[in-house]
């Protein structure tokens, strides 16, 4: 199991089958007994050693942002909508893969020569852009990519610069990767680790909601990728988090306010164990922390994120050391619970 | 010739306007089997000469590509850029690039994430000055490896689509250089009197400097310019675009009517589909420059329709390219000593 | 160098009427070059034959002309209507003192308008009583430029309305005076009509067929409040052009010149200018095409009446060019 393989698997929200299959195979290979629940989450429980031990749910979502085919034009161009939030400004002139057969496609736009001054300013929305697979007409387009066919970015995983990674779907394959590694370690935790590879986070945290109810954990930990804006001469106070400065611990976001005791405890553990970390300096975004927190009678939750530049784009960037730090802090935290 | 393979190789070669050394090398190699002599001139035009005793014909298509250039290195290591040729800033966010510094560096183009922008700012496209290249290095390291004026080219593999459609960067106008290659290959099978020059020109995107100087040097009797044209695609007026399935000949004051008519007849005789487009003024291609070389050169303009021009997924129909090459080969082979008779009558 | 600069800044020479500038240069160079000619357009072409075997012909071009105004009409009250010759900025032109070659003075003024003034709103006040009086002083088609001036600004800097491109004229004169015998033939072109489309350099390079062309010109600046592009600073050395809107420098020649800067021990800057063009664009596409580059003097407030350069950049450019020709 490695991040390259993980990010290059196509699994947009609601269409996580290829990643689910891969995870099942990998989990069985390390002697785990994964189950698939009602929402399509892949769930594994690793029993702890403590008495009166807590059930700690650690979640990371399998799905990535992408597109779904909504029809075809007479000329054979595919109409699409986004699955999850994809800013249409980052999709022009990009390559995509259509459907399970990974049919190659491109997203074009009108040539600059034919654009008026107003055209240049105007953002092309999902009504204006099409996926071109070279289909001769509507009939061929519909045969190759019927309505509902998922579409993913086609961007290979690249390591570059000083320990950086550029790939699609880093949000949240980094979390999946780290949960897998927590499970794969021989070391046992005092608590029960309820590992949830969840579905459909990008369209409303649907998988985690079902899993949190079903698993009824005492504590929830979400391993996420979060937005990062540390480049481009952004003034320091406006930076959400910074790549290379460790795992980002949220005090809250648009979906949840982190349990204060758990938050303080997490920072204390990070300091004691010498895990590089930072406190995420913004309340933007939302994630599975929110649905776990509000499940059943309420669950204390914490969110540990890898800072990701250009999140929800075909070329998301994170730093490998931050992925390690997320793993280290999650591990240390589990040891302490 | 495996056209898609040659197209992929052409697209991958680095050759921004004014610095076409590497792509010129690539095309010079490709032309060698089909002509008597290949040279690369001082401007980096590739000139492939197939010798003959008949009229001197210059075919040209440009090999330069639009690209970016380093204009500033910020203190956080991000690289600001300017354009070489008409780059559409809309294609840039999240695009991958190569920064050609002391080392070739992988980079991706970043911008402020939308979550952190006002609704008003989200509703307009990113401006060039808001974008930057992220090479994953600190400023100190970037300044060691990268200088103002270094080139930045797009890093996008080519893509084969259905029905022989092919998407890649630089198809404007390297697909037409490949069309010349196919024509040269085809011409080997035909009887040809003409003295033929195939020229992969430089600097078309910044003002046709290469075509200007190559035409002066070659001093041809007849010019055939080849360039990309807008194909039918969503978001474009049907009047401004042409179908993908046939090459397009232009008619208008910058182009010689008899020579143009001759091409149309040639197409008909050989069963090759050819569409017509009107160019009421300048054509904004190398044809304009070549036509004014020395005492003037009568010429024609043949275009290959492509979708998404000046993006990194310029899409052509390979069958159309092949058919256009066949047309060119027949046209050139049928030019005889009498070509100039009644040319202007 | 400053004395030479002062000399070539003094004459009035709008585009198409550069002879007063040529006269000054001719006087300065008569003892230093083998031939000197003035062509049909008014280019001054000074040649120093190379002493090597098969010498290459290297053309350096500095333009003598200066942006200005041309009289297009006279109001009955005696005010002149004018249009621009070359790229005149209207904002910076307002209430400036201009002067005609015959010595007539004028002030450029805009009518009060809402928004920004256009050329049609501009008039020149030459102190005439009425049209008849004005016609005694100027004719339709007469050209005027910002009144010559030359002033020191701090220790190293100099301001003048004609710095573009007389500073390069001074540089080229100095170069010709100091190079001695060279292996290659050096063609010093003091060109005309650069500001209206690099016309002088076009015909001169056709006539002289150089093997290499190097334009000497000013460039923009990015080191004052609110201006960060291009990344060019005054006093940081001669700028070696990568590209502008007129030409892309030959990459080998560009690197060779940068290397010469290093050898000469002077500071250089790499220049990417998102606007403008130089005589290099004309030289590049003459006949069959030649490698070109531009050596630029960083200049603040280009095309205003106060164009400012740093003398240290002039010295750096001179040493760089001397080294290039000595190689």
Structure report:
- The complex is a heterotrimer of chains A (337), B (345) and C (327).
- Chain A is an alpha+beta fold and 337 residues long.
- Chain A has 2 domains: 3-64 and 168-336, Aminopeptidase, CATH 3.40.630; 66-152, Elongation Factor Tu (Ef-tu), domain 3 (Beta Barrel), CATH 2.40.30.
- Chain A has helices at 3-8, 17-29, 117-121, 138-144, 170-184, 206-215, 260-273, 288-293, 320-336, and strands at 35-36, 42-46, 55-61, 66-72, 78-83, 94-98, 103-107, 130-132, 150-153, 158-160, 164-167, 192-198, 219-228, 247-249, 277-279, 301-309, 316-319.
- In chain A, the strands form 3 sheets. In chain A, strands 1-2-12-3-13-16-14-15 form an 8-stranded mixed β-sheet, with helices on both faces. In chain A, strands 4-5-8-7-6-9 form a 6-stranded antiparallel β-barrel.
- In chain A, helix 5 crosses helix 9.
- Chain B has helices spanning 3-12, 21-31, 119-122, 139-145, 171-187, 209-218, 257-269, 286-291, 318-333, and strands at 37-40, 46-50, 56-62, 67-73, 79-84, 96-100, 104-110, 132-134, 151-154, 159-160, 165-168, 195-201, 222-230, 247-251, 274-278, 299-306, 314-317.
- Chain B is an alpha+beta fold and 345 residues long.
- Chain B is 27% helix and 27% strand.
- In chain B, helix 5 (171-187) packs across helix 9.
- The relative contact order of chain B is 0.19.
- By secondary structure, chain C is α+β, with helices and mostly antiparallel strands.
- Chain C folds into 2 domains: 2-66 and 162-326, Zn peptidases (Aminopeptidase), CATH 3.40.630; 68-146, Peptidase M42, domain 2 (Elongation Factor Tu (Ef-tu), domain 3), CATH 2.40.30.
- Chain C has 9 helices and 17 strands.
- In chain C, the strands form 3 sheets. In chain C, strands 1-2-12-3-13-16-14-15 form an 8-stranded mixed β-sheet, with helices on both faces. In chain C, strands 5-4-9-6-7-8 form a 6-stranded antiparallel β-sheet. Chain C has a 3-stranded antiparallel β-sheet with strand order 10-11-17.
- In chain C, helix 7 links the parallel strand 14 (238-243) and strand 15.
- The longest helix of chain C is centred in the middle third of the chain and has 16 residues, at 163-178.
- The mean pLDDT of chain C is 96.
- Chains in contact: A-B, B-C.
């Amino acid at each position: 199991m490695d991040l390259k393989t993980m990010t290059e698997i196509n699994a947009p929200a609601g269409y996580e089958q290829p990643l689910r299959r891969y995870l099942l195979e990998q989990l069985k290979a390390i002697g785990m007994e994964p189950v698939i629940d009602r929402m399509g989450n892949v769930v594994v429980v690793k029993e702890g050693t403590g008495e009166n031990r807590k059930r700690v749910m650690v979640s990371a979502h399998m799905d990535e942002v992408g597109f779904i085919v909504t029809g075809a034009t007479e000329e054979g161009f595919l109409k699409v909508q986004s699955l999850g939030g994809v800013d249409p400004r980052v999709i022009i002139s990009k390559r995509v893969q259509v459907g399970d057969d990974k049919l190659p496609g491109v997203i074009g736009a009108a040539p600059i020569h034919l654009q008026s001054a107003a055209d240049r300013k105007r953002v092309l929305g999902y009504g204006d852009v099409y996926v071109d697979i070279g289909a001769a007409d509507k009939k061929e387009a519909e045969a190759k990519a019927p309505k509902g066919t998922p579409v993913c970015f086609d961007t290979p995983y690249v390591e570059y610069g000083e320990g950086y990674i550029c790939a699609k779907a880093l949000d949240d394959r980094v979390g999946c990767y780290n949960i897998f590694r927590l499970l794969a370690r021989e070391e046992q935790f005092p608590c029960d680790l309820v590992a949830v590879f969840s579905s459909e986070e990008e369209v409303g945290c649907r998988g985690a909601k079902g899993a949190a109810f079903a698993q009824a954990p005492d504590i929830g930990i979400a391993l996420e990728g979060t937005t990062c804006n540390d480049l481009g001469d952004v003034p320091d106070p406006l930076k959400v988090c910074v790549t290379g400065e460790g795992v980002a611990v949220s005090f809250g976001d648009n979906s949840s306010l982190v349990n204060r005791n758990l938050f303080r405890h997490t920072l204390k553990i990070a300091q004691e164990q010498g895990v590089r970390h930072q406190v995420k300096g913004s309340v933007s975004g939302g994630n599975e922390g929110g649905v776990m927190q509000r499940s059943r009678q309420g669950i204390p939750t914490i969110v540990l994120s890898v800072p990701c530049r250009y999140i929800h784009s075909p070329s998301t960037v994170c730093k490998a050391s931050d992925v390690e730090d997320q793993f280290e802090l999650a591990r240390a935290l589990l040891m302490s619970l | 010739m495996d056209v898609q393979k040659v197209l992929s190789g052409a697209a991958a070669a680095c050759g921004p306007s004014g610095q076409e050394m590497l792509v010129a090398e690539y095309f010079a190699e490709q032309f060698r089997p089909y002509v008597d002599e290949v040279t690369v001139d001082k401007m980096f035009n590739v000139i492939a000469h197939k010798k003959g005793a008949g009229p001197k014909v210059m075919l040209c298509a440009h090999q330069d590509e639009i690209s970016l250039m380093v204009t500033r290195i910020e203190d956080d290591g991000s690289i600001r850029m300017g354009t070489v040729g008409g780059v559409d800033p809309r294609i840039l966010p999240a695009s991958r690039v190569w920064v050609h510094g002391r080392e070739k560096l992988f980079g991706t183009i970043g911008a402020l994430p939308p979550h952190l922008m006002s609704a008003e700012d989200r509703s307009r496209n990113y401006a060039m000055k808001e974008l930057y290249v992220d090479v994953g290095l600190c400023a100190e390291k970037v300044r060691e490896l990268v200088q103002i004026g270094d080139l930045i080219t797009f890093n996008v593999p080519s893509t084969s689509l259905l029905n022989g459609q092919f998407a890649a960067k630089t198809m404007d106008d390297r697909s037409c250089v490949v069309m010349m290659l196919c024509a040269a290959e085809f011409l080997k099978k035909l009887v040809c009197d003409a003295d033929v020059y195939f020229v992969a020109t430089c600097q078309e995107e910044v003002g046709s400097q290469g075509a200007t100087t190559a035409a002066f040097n070659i001093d041809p009797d007849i010019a055939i310019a080849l360039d990309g044209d807008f194909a039918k695609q969503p978001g474009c007026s049907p009047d401004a675009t042409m179908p993908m399935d046939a090459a397009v000949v232009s008619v208008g004051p910058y182009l010689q009517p008899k020579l143009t008519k001759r091409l149309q007849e040639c197409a008909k005789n050989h069963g090759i589909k050819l569409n017509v487009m009107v160019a009421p003024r300048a054509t904004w291609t190398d044809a304009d420059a070549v036509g004014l070389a020395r005492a003037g050169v009568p010429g024609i303009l043949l275009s290959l329709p492509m979708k998404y021009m000046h993006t990194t997924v310029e899409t052509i129909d390979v069958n159309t390219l092949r058919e256009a090459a066949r047309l060119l080969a027949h046209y050139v082979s049928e030019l005889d000593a009498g070509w100039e008779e009644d040319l202007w009558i | 160098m400053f004395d030479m600069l002062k000399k070539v800044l003094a004459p009035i020479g709008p585009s198409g009427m550069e002879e007063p500038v040529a006269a000054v240069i001719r006087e300065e160079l008569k003892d230093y070059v083998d031939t000197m000619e003035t062509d049909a357009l008014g280019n001054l072409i000074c040649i120093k034959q190379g002493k090597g075997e098969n010498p290459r012909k290297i053309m350096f071009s500095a333009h003598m002309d200066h942006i200005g105004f041309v009289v297009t009409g006279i109001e009955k009250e005696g005010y002149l209507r004018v249009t621009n010759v070359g790229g005149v900025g209207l904002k910076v032109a307002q209430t400036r003192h201009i002067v005609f070659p015959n010595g007539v003075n004028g002030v450029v003024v805009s009518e009060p308008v809402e928004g920004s003034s256009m050329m049609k709103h501009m008039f020149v006040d030459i102190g005439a009583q009425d049209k008849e009086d004005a016609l005694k002083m100027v004719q339709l088609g007469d050209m005027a430029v910002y009144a010559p001036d030359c002033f020191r600004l701090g220790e190293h800097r100099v301001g003048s309305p004609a710095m573009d491109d007389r500073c390069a004229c001074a540089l080229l004169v100095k170069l010709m005076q100091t190079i001695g015998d060279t292996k290659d033939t050096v063609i010093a072109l003091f060109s005309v009509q650069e500001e209206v489309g690099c016309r002088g350099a076009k015909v001169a390079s056709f006539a002289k067929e150089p093997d290499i062309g190097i334009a000497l010109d000013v460039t923009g600046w990015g080191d004052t409040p609110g201006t960060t592009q291009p990344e060019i600073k005054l006093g940081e050395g001669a700028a070696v052009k990568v590209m502008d809107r007129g030409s892309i420098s030959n990459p080998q020649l560009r690197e060779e010149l940068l290397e010469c800067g290093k050898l000469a021990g002077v500071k250089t800057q790499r220049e990417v200018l998102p606007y403008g063009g130089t005589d290099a664009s004309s030289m590049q596409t003459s006949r069959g095409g030649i490698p070109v580059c531009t050596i630029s003097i960083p200049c603040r407030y280009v095309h205003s009446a106060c164009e400012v350069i740093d003398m240290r950049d002039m010295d750096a450019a001179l040493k760089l060019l001397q080294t290039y020709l000595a190689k």
